[in-house]
Amino acid sequence: MDLPADLSTVLKPIEEARGLPNACYISEEYYQTEKQKVFFGGWAALAFISDAPNPGDVCPVDFLGMPLLLVRNKDDGLKVFQNVCRHRGMILVEEATHLRGPIRCPYHSWSYDYDGNLVRTPYVGGVGIDDHENICPKDLSLHEIRSHVWQGVVFVDVSGQAPAFNIAHKDLLGRWAEFDQPYHLGGAASRFDMTLDTNWKLAVENYCESYHLPWIHPELNEISPIDAHYHIEHDSYAGQGSRNYRQLIGENSKKFKDFEGLGDVWDGQSEYVALFPNVLLGVHRDHSFAMLLMPQGPEKTLERVALYYADKNIDVPENLDMLRENARIWQDVFNEDVGVVQGMQKGRHGMYFDGGKFSPVMDGPTHSFHKWVARTLMV
Ligand code: FES
Ligand SMILES: [Fe+2]
């Protein structure tokens, strides 16, 4: 499709800029363009490492309609494949499961190992004959999708053309280098999902800013007030930090273990960053979280949240109350945002809305995101 004509106004200095036009939030045609350029054209978040925790685990992911398969292989590495058999294009795996043998296609039983190699082709040369000179297994491996793990999240580059993840995101990796250490999911109590009637971009935009704190999160604003926040603005990520992070303290003054070797600055500081396009990350001395935004269409978004901890043995019954409490605190905060994120989506059907006017002081991170989207679409 032709992009909305006024996209260039998004790129102007914040004082003159307008936000992305309505079509970017409600048009099916625009959504298809965005899917190709924004989600399939470079690195995007796909899944959690905890979606396939053990060797032999396979987890299908519908990535904006593209069938992908997350596989934990025998070396404990994660790989992502197109979830499609090389024979007649059958979907290979329909549900997350633990496999003992190879990945077997349910149609004619062609089978692949966890590195995507075709290892069995029963009767392919006729009944009882499992090979044929025309069928060359090494040419028929599963199509591997380039992937990278960071912050407990599996990222993919469907295009295969993006710069290496460590290069593309070197600034954020540098900023949070201290958090580049093993992350451990706090079990089922540390995972929850929400489905919102909104475009995924509005979830990013709302996450980037602290402007709404006093009105949408009055209780959080008591602990971590708006004036203790600072903005984070960059070409490929944006968000906010707080200088007033207070750890959860359980019974008998119990606390979660800190990540190892953090500088003193993190004693009372936390940061919340949207890594474009679709993952919202938060880091604290004693836990981190990631929210994956999985678009289900222009006006529906699945939000998948996981909380991670430093302690390898975090997922034990004696920690359950605190794990539940920490997840509840975050779920309450995210629930408080639902009304405005869905309300902004409804607002995008107001035909005279012009993308909106940014506050030059408060909306810088949101503008950074809009500029990134506009630039990515205009390439
Ligand atoms: S489609 Fe998979 S084996 Fe035939
Ligand atoms: Fe919020």
Q: Could you characterize what this model shows?
A:
This protein has 379 residues and is α+β, with helices and mostly antiparallel strands. It contains nine helices and 18 strands. The strands form three sheets. Strands 11, 12, 13, 14, 15, 16, 17 and 18 form an eight-stranded antiparallel β-sheet that branches. A seven-stranded antiparallel β-sheet has the order 1-10-9-4-3-2-5, with no helix packed on it. Helix 5 (200-208) runs antiparallel to helix 9 (364-378). The longest helix has 28 residues, at 320-347. The protein starts with 22 loop residues before the first helix and ends with a helix. The model has no long low-confidence stretch (mean pLDDT 96). The chain binds FE2/S2 (inorganic) cluster and fe (ii) ion. Residues 206, 212, 216-217, 337 line the site of fe (ii) ion.
Associated small molecules: FE2/S2 (inorganic) cluster, fe (ii) ion
Reported by name, the CATH topology of the largest domain is: Naphthalene 1,2-dioxygenase Alpha Subunit, Chain A, domain 1
Mean pLDDT: 96
**Could you name the CATH homologous superfamily of the largest domain?**
Naphthalene 1,2-dioxygenase Alpha Subunit, Chain A, domain 1
Secondary-structure element order, N to C = HHEEEEEEEEEEHHEEHHHEEEEEEHH
How large, in whole angstroms, is the Cα Rg?
A: 22 Å
What quaternary form is this? single chain
| Count of structural domains | 2
Helix content: 10-25%
The low-confidence parts are none
- State the major sheet: 8 strands, antiparallel
β-sheet strand percentage: 15-25%
- How many H/I helical runs? 9
Structural class: alpha+beta
Query: Distance between termini?
Result: 14 Å
CATH architectural grouping of the largest domain: Alpha-Beta Complex
Please identify the top-level CATH class of the largest domain: Alpha Beta
